Amino acid sequence: MSDGAAAAAYPGLATKTVVAGVIDGHNVWRADLDAKLTTLEGLVGPQGLGAGAVAVGTSTSLLHVPHDADDEQWGNDSTPGAARRKLDPRLREWLAFANQKVGEVATLARGLASGRDAVADELRASSDAVASRVTAEGVRVPEVRERLASLTAGDFTRGAYAERAAAQQAALGLPLLPTTTIGSFPQTPEIRRARAQHARGALPEAEYTSAMQAEIRRVVELQEQIGLDVLVHGEPERNDMVQYFAELLDGFATTANGWVQSYGSRCVRPPILWGDVVRSAPMTVDWSSYTASLTSKPVKGMLTGPVTILAWSFVRDDQPLGDSANQVGLALRDELADLEAAGIGIIQVDEPALRELLPLRAADQPAYLDWSVGSFRLATSGVRTETQVHTHLCYSEFGEVIGAIDALDADVTSVEAARSRMEIVPELEAVGFARGIGPGVYDIHSPRVPSVEEATELLELAVKSIDPHVVWANPDCGLKTRRYAETVPSLENLVSATKAVRATL
């Protein structure tokens, strides 16, 4: 409820205690305590519930936010790597993690019970912090705003798919049912150790680069031995598919100790989007270019899409989410252009969170799908006709967003399909999906190695309903969490199954 009049409209509340969840439990921004106290005063006022009937609380459990902002390291540090762990001191007064949110609840409860004078200092400090965000350098970057304002419909569209497909096949020369992976390869303890040492400043940049290149070389040689058609660099340098890019984009901050639970026992440190997004330098080009220098086969560049970057970050609350998505889209658009200029002819922009952010209210879904699809198309529509754009979507109810998946207009879309035994195939048929599709033929979330026969059966199911000329053979998802002992035979069986199905077409 937002005011006393609304509260009074429900007489059944007269004998209840209403917990007013005025402190946001989902995001990390410091609350405007003056505004929140005004809301609470409206609830208990003359037309409201009465002072004893309202308790102050958070909007949700505090499971979704980090524990304590005081645990972070604040200040600038010129040491490479170490600087990534220190947050801009300006953010300190803007942020409220779980401990700080409990303090905000206590302040509001005291102000509601004892009057504004009792919390005057806290209200003033809160108002000053909120005001400082508005005018801080980097929160609004004129060049970014001007670029967004100058976008036209042409910036969100590519040419006809038939023309693109013909140009891409001429440029890439791919076989029927091309084989590839989703991007990441197993991250060994040695790779994780090298990355951690580099982040601490204990491993010099040259030695770190050498270690990553050695792993990339090994992964490329392995893929060639297995017989994959489109290769990836394996992403050894990436700590997380979102955090990696947040560390390289202006407008984001990353924490040292801001852990939250993702799923099961997996925890992540979501980046904090606090300002306008600027890509000050290429983020992936050197790694992809080095990979391409090791092989004559096509190499796929790997990026995380704007929707997923926002979904798995704490986002700014002072502008529409669609505006932030387009800012990330522009940064990625520049990255795609640089990858293309470096000779990378296939670029994958992952959007596993597309379904995840879909609003529960049906009335809110069209607006979300409009900006989410638009930000992806903004990121990917600047490339040449012969550059092949891929995307990847993880486990979800694809049928609920199948129209949006089609509207992304990617040249190739890889999706989960092994666990559901190609359940998505009839859904793709229903919307007339006619572009490249890579239905996953083995479940990477299980350590079990699928047999050649299993993969063959799933591929056969796919090509019975979909034109074989647009079908790709790939795993369900990235291989980062798997071990090489299961990854190598699984990929070998995938390639064997693909060859068997090719022979029947």
TrEMBL record:
The alphabetized UniProt keywords are: Metal-binding, Zinc
Q: Name one Pfam family in it.
A: Meth_synt_2
Stored SUPFAM superfamilies:
UROD/MetE-like
Q: Which domain of life is it from?
A: Bacteria
InterPro entries per record:
Met_Synth_C/arc (IPR002629), UROD/MetE-like_sf (IPR038071)
Cobalamin-independent methionine synthase MetE C-terminal/archaeal domain: from which residue to which, for each copy? 177-499
For this entry, the protein name equals: Cobalamin-independent methionine synthase MetE C-terminal/archaeal domain-containing protein
Q: Which organism is it from?
A: Paraoerskovia sediminicola
Instruction: Kindly list the organism's lineage.
Output: Bacteria, Bacillati, Actinomycetota, Actinomycetes, Micrococcales
